[in-house]
Fold this sequence. Notes:
The chain has helices at residues 3-17, 21-38. The chain has 42 residues and is an all-alpha fold. The protein has one domain (3-38). Helix 1 (3-17) runs antiparallel to helix 2. The longest helix has 18 residues, at 21-38.
Amino acid sequence: MKLSEIWYHYEADNRIQGFSPNTLKAYGLQLKMLVSDLGDID
């Protein structure tokens, strides 16, 4: 499973747990930076 696919599941789980949209957005931006550095690795 690639990092971008893992994010989809992680975000959905955290949304269910009640994380704020701003927190999820910040996490998403951090993931995008990681993927840009490492690539979308398995």
